[in-house]
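Reminder to self: tokens first, then the designed residues, so the page reads top to bottom the way the pipeline ran.
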């Protein structure tokens, strides 16, 4: 969903939730206030949900979301899982070449497994994961392979 898709009623509800949390003298919502405002809209975000989008949306980098930024957050949070996976793919495609190579996959897996000591995520593990997900066997993951694989896994398909 995009901000342009919001109805006038949606915008009023979002503004009411936003206004209920803005404190005097603040330019916007903190992360905690954002979570409370989303709860008022019937959305139960995790801290991860908010943090995941926070730095992309906080354009002024002042640690507060404006009403417009909050509207954008409302449109992306808890929506299409494919959109979230595409966002994640782009975060791990650090060289912006449209693929996740072995080095980027290793960083991704190290993050997911919180393996700062390298106990679990070694080259063999990375290669095995790449083999499972690399549908066209070109040695890298395209966004479609990444999204399809994770959507299949979360849907219980193999």
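Designed residues (158 positions):
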């Amino acid at each position: 969903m995009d901000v342009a898709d919001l109805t006038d009623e949606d915008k009023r509800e979002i503004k009411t939730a936003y206004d209920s949390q803005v404190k005097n003298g603040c330019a916007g919502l903190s992360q905690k206030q954002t979570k409370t405002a989303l709860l008022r809209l019937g959305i139960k975000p995790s801290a991860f949900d908010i943090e995941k989008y926070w730095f992309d949306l906080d354009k002024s980098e002042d640690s507060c979301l404006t009403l417009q930024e909050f509207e954008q957050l409302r449109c992306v949070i808890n929506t299409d899982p494919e959109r979230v996976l595409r966002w994640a793919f782009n975060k791990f495609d650090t060289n912006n070449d449209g693929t996740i190579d072995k080095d980027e996959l290793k960083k991704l897996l190290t993050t997911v497994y919180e393996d700062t000591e390298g106990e679990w995520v070694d080259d063999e593990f990375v290669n095995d994961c790449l083999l499972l997900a690399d549908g066209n066997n070109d040695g890298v993951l395209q966004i479609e392979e990444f999204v399809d694989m994770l959507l299949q896994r979360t849907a219980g398909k193999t």
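Residues 3 and 72 are 6 Å apart (CA to CA).
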